[in-house]
């Protein structure tokens, strides 16, 4: 039982559900008195569906410009380039429509706009390493709205993951007002999301809930909400697996992602699954939606002596009351048809040394409920997940 702590409330106005995305975006633009809306969108949604055109049509003359060439792992270079386009378009609101990369790009674009960052090096004066506790950014004049097409849950977070391509390092940048001013949930957009991305991103959102539940810095409110989210996500994802065009199953999955990500909203620090996952993605190119399936079961086993009570509650939420949480999560991954071992995503023992060298200094690895005393202990974990 946690005896002391503090619960943070995020700088988000609202989560909107039950309306088509185009209608909700237009209403939010009017509420915020925005007249120049810059869209950062999935290329698939923009070129292979009419979803983005519906948004442009509904916005009318409030639409300023659209960008759709989003890199899978958000980069400093692209953030600076897109910020320049948004400033040239005189954008007063940025709207991200797509997966986690679109949302992260929008978050960091508004900071690049605020500070007139024009290239990769322009982010150097804003370090966000393990020892940084306060954001070095100014409060942005332009805010963003997120319309997710996956289940990642990063839209409920006031931080962005950004890769510095000069050294292939994924970094965390943070400001409370990088949190979207609104999140819009429309299951119709998700019908176009590939199944492996939908399922994999759902495990990433579940990861947010698991690491918040297991964190020593968690809160009673966050614990209860993320457990509800994990249960809801599991049900929705399994239903979607059986019936991909089931709108209610997709809506349920979106609600589960919202709840499971509540720890992010409360700024509960994540643990080693996130920290190691950032290295796997930023340095070794593993798709972000495969990082949780290959690491989480082994990390739960590593953390169990320090998180036994939390893991009992987690096992029940995963549909295995009285069982082992790591086994239950691994079985869930198997049911979804996702990779469950590092070898399945191209990570062999030859890479373990480099992963541990970077991960040992990651702020989330340092926040893991069971400490890692040295790189060798991270290598041992990676061998468990091999």
How would you sum up this structure, described in words?
The protein has 386 residues and is an alpha/beta fold. It folds into two domains: 14-188, Rossmann fold (3-Layer(aba) Sandwich); 194-385, Up-down Bundle (Dehydroquinate synthase-like, alpha domain), CATH 1.20.1090. It is 51% helix and 11% strand. It has a six-stranded parallel sheet, sandwiched between helices. Strands 6-7 form a two-stranded antiparallel ribbon. A hairpin with a 4-residue loop joins strand 6 and strand 7 (169-174). Helix 7 (195-214) packs antiparallel against helix 8 (220-242), helix 7 (195-214) packs parallel to helix 9 (247-260) and helix 11 runs antiparallel to helix 12 (288-317). The radius of gyration is 20 Å and the shape is globular.
Give a short summary of the structure.
This protein is α/β, with parallel strands linked by helices and 386 residues long. It has 16 helices and 8 strands.
Question: What is the percentage of strand-forming residues?
Answer: 5-15%
Question: Low-confidence parts, pLDDT < 50 over ≥5 residues?
Answer: none
Radius of gyration computed on alpha carbons: 20 Å
At the third CATH level, what is the topology name of the largest domain?
Dehydroquinate synthase-like, alpha domain
Mean pLDDT reading: 94
